[in-house]
Amino acid sequence: MAGGGFRDGFLRFRRPRMPEKLPARRVVMIVVGGVLFYLLVLSEFGFLQHWELSRKRSAIEVRIREAQERKIELESQRGELGNDAALERIAREEHGMVRADEHVYRLALPDSGGGRERKR
């Protein structure tokens, strides 16, 4: 037994190292980074809110354009309604109206049956 003698036959027991504490500077940087991330991305002034509002704005602009087109169409119809002949045509075609001195005859076509039999 040369040299170390008794200690050479045994492994030296090492205590597990305790994790080092984070330096205060690193903790401050992590907190500041988290706050900045929240403010820039998640808050009401962040990118996600901005994206959502721009998407809603686009949808509203489409609805406005459709409403303007419908307004133009209705204004052209309003101009047409000033004409008595147009009013009479609309009353007859769309509402089935007739004048007081007219008679309406409706012709019914005979039922082709279509494979159905009447029960008596």
Q: Any overview of this molecule?
A:
This protein has 120 residues and is mainly alpha-helical. It has a domain at 44-98. It contains three helices and no strands. The protein is elongated and about 125 Å long. The model has no long low-confidence stretch (mean pLDDT 81).
Core attributes:
about 120 residues; mainly alpha; about 0% strand
Brief rundown of the structure:
With 120 residues, the chain is an all-alpha fold. It is built from three helices and no strands.
What characterizes the major β-sheet? Answer: none
Assign an overall shape: elongated
Q: Per DSSP, what share of the residues sits in E-state strands of 2 or more residues?
A: under 5%
Instruction: Figure out the total of helices.
Output: 3
How far is the first residue's CA from the last residue's CA? 124 Å
Structural class: mainly alpha
Helix content range = 55-70%
**Helix and strand run:** HHH
Let me know the number of strands.
0
- Low-pLDDT parts are none
Mean pLDDT value: 81
* Rg calc: 44 Å
Write the layout of secondary structure elements.
Blueprint: H1 24-42, H2 47-81, H3 84-95
